[in-house]
Design brief:
By secondary structure, the protein is mostly helical. It has a domain of 43 residues. It contains 16 helices and three strands. Helix 2 runs antiparallel to helix 7, helix 7 runs parallel beside helix 16 and helix 15 runs antiparallel to helix 16. It is globular, with a radius of gyration of 28 Å. It comes from Coprococcus eutactus.
């Protein structure tokens, strides 16, 4: 969340100034206007990290639960204001609870629910705002909420599959790092004095291990600085045009991971397009919203170009076919949907297909990484054993030869 300094005029004509938190300038403006202020000036406070900070996000699971409960309450005949008040008391996520309270305040002043959600664009994604807006205009808010529930549940399931595949290797690597640190801090120093008393030339592996132990014990603070500098440096580099393009290419072409990223993008594209268009949102607007939610710059730029072509009357399947990073099946199935006049249903089937493909890819990834991790572990253990016991065995051999 960014912090903005503001100068405003209230309904009584009095000047006020202060600070407000919002995800961006647009969000800050909408918050102030919703409270009846006329904005004179609005400037963002500078951050010592230059905007590299980490933002808290509301998970798809939380949004799905909110939409499910909100839909049930609306179907029971409860007003939107009362429903928002009721939901605010039940939601555990503090960020979401505050955003719901802001939405209730906005609706109480006569605003629409969709506009109320726009006050917190960092909490409520564009797909949710647009579908709520479509539901309000068509009088089918409950139906749109039910579609959002299905969308968020499947999106959460997709994310869970990917995270589940990465949990095992991450845990193993973390344990390996901890073990290495313990060995360097608690084991190696005990052997160092003995090695010094031997007075013999130590192998390179042993000297490197002893140097690493000294570094971890006496210069650990420098290690923290180096790691922090690398993390923030990479995060900053990814925000540059060149860095974003580079990481986008790596994300699509990396062995194993590239295939998984492409299939995940296809699943989310097809699912979101189907959900938006089934709710009455035009294809042009749907493509734009899907493009904005894509993390990969290459895919995002390709979809924004597709939006321009669709606005000129070109079928969606044509620009999708030109996006060579996407599998041909996506454009082929989209073309069939266009020809049959049931593109929403076809995209839904495509999403189901790629959901299964993502699950198969994550299983293959886990199966491929397990032996690689075991080999890595064996290599690390072997290096430690060789570094510690190599000189000892050499000393015993020398004693036997005397």
């Amino acid at each position: 969340m960014a912090v903005f300094n503001y100068k405003v005029v209230d309904r009584d004509g009095k000047n006020k100034k202060g600070t407000i938190e919002a995800p961006n300038r647009d969000g800050a403006e909408k918050k102030l206007k919703s409270e009846g202020y006329s904005i004179m000036s609005l400037t963002e406070q500078s951050s010592p990290l230059g905007g590299i900070g980490f933002k808290k996000k509301v998970k798809s699971r939380d949004l799905g639960v909110f939409c499910k409960q909100f839909s049930a309450v609306i179907k029971a005949g409860v007003t939107i204001i009362s429903a928002l008040e009721l939901m605010g008391d039940q939601i555990e996520n503090k960020t979401l609870r505050k955003a719901i309270a802001d939405a209730r305040t906005y609706v109480e002043k006569g605003g629409t629910l969709a506009d109320a959600l726009r006050v917190n664009p960092d909490v409520f994604p564009p797909i949710m705002i647009n579908m709520v807006s479509a539901g309000e205009m068509s009088g089918n808010l409950e139906i749109c909420l039910d579609r959002l529930v299905e969308h968020f549940e499947k999106d959460n399931a997709l994310s869970s599959k990917i995270k589940g595949a990465m949990t095992y290797p991450i845990v193993v690597l973390c344990v390996m790092v901890i073990v290495i640190i313990v060995v360097l801090v608690a084991v190696i120093p005990n052997f160092s004095s003995m090695f010094e008393e031997m007075g013999t030339q130590l192998p390179l592996a042993t000297r490197m291990m002893m140097a690493a132990a000294d570094f971890v014990m006496y210069k650990w603070w420098l290690l923290i600085i180096i790691v922090a500098a690398i993390v923030f440096g990479v995060k900053f580099f990814k925000k540059t045009p060149f860095g974003e393009q580079l990481f986008a290419n790596i994300g699509l072409k990396a062995p194993i991971f590239g295939n998984l990223n492409v299939k995940t993008a296809c699943a989310r594209f097809a699912r979101t397009m189907s959900t938006l268009m089934a709710s009455g949102i035009s294809m042009i607007d749907a493509v734009e919203q899907v493009a904005k939610m894509m993390d990969n710059k290459i895919i995002r730029d390709g979809l924004m170009d597709a939006k321009v072509q669709v606005s000129k009357g070109v079928p969606l399947s044509k620009p999708l076919k030109d996006m060579t990073m996407l599998p041909p099946m996506l454009s082929a199935m989209t073309k069939i949907g266009e020809e049959t006049g049931d593109i929403e249903e076809m995209l839904s089937k495509v999403a189901d297909y790629y959901d299964e493909e993502v699950e198969a890819a994550t299983n293959a990834l886990t199966a491929a990484m397990e032996p690689m991790i075991m080999v890595l572990l064996a290599g690390v253990v072997g290096m430690i054993v060789a570094a510690v016991y190599g000189p000892i065995m050499s000393m015993y051999d020398a004693m036997d030869n005397v």
